[in-house]
Specification:
single chain; alpha/beta; 262 residues
Length: 262
């Protein structure tokens, strides 16, 4: 009971953080997540963990992009990503304590190439494994598309650690941005999941430039907003879909409560 109360308190507490020297209004101790539908099982049992900032995704969809650009520029993205990853792990641990291990959701956590290039990542991952090793296989490191790796040697070592710890690796938002993970000859073979803009299946020409084979990966189509998008994704062989058609980003506590009542 004490452990449950501790987790609940940590997930729900409200505090404030600084973004480039100023308080970011509306920041909460929640993390924001968006549901993903598994087409084979026709259920929603997985979430992409987006950010810890409380923003209006509907009125200003570009606000997250601007926040992340600033975080990348200042280097604060590393601490942001690791904080969000710890919170996701904490939320999963809370659910396991509450309901047992049989019906845990999966959580895909956005991690920047800059964060993967930092020695801090390994320390954070090993700390989470020590705290609760029984939920690691429910977490996915989703490498964002925006930038290249600052240090590919460290990033490769961290990706090896990710795999040995039981997590999977996803490349986010193909074909936008750099998509550094799938263009790295060493890291690409470790990628398990490719997330694509709706309808943007890799062409043979694009595949030839990549360092990995998309056919061996689980395909997830993003920005599914209509039934036609969903039908097209299934027809193209996507295993999962994500978008406003299934739900808008919400605090992870609300997401888990909705999942529990489904």
């Amino acid at each position: 009971k004490k452990k449950l109360e501790k987790h609940s308190k940590n997930i729900e507490k409200v505090d404030f953080s600084k973004l480039s020297g100023r308080k970011e209004r509306g920041y909460e101790g929640f993390i924001y997540a968006q549901p993903i539908r598994d087409y084979e099982n026709s259920d929603i049992h997985k979430f992409e963990i987006l950010t810890r900032f409380n923003v209006d995704f509907v009125k200003d969809p570009g606000v997250i992009e601007r926040i992340f650009q600033e975080l990348e520029k200042t280097g604060e993205i590393i601490d942001h990503d690791l904080d969000v990853m710890r919170r996701a792990h904490m939320a999963l641990s809370y659910v396991r304590t509450l309901n047992g291990s049989d019906n845990l959701p999966e959580m895909a956590v956005n991690i920047s190439p800059k964060t993967l290039s930092s020695p801090k990542f390994a320390a954070a991952l090993l700390s989470m494994k020590e705290d609760d090793p029984f939920i690691m296989d429910k977490m996915i490191v989703e490498i964002t598309e925006r930038y290249d790796f600052d240090n590919e040697d460290i990033a490769f070592e961290n990706c090896q650690l990710i795999k040995s710890t039981g997590l999977r690796i996803a490349q986010d938002d193909y074909p936008l941005g750099r998509c550094a993970a799938i263009h790295s000859k060493r890291i690409a073979p470790l990628v398990d999941i490719i997330k694509m803009e709706v309808g943007r299946i890799p062409s043979l020409k694009a595949t030839a430039r990549m360092a990995f084979d998309p056919e061996r990966c689980l395909k997830v189509e993003e920005r599914i907003e209509t039934i036609a998008h969903e039908e097209g994704a299934i027809r193209r062989g996507a295993g999962q879909g994500q978008g406003f058609f299934y739900g808008r980003p919400m605090p992870i506590k609300s997401s888990l409560e909705a999942l529990a009542s489904a």
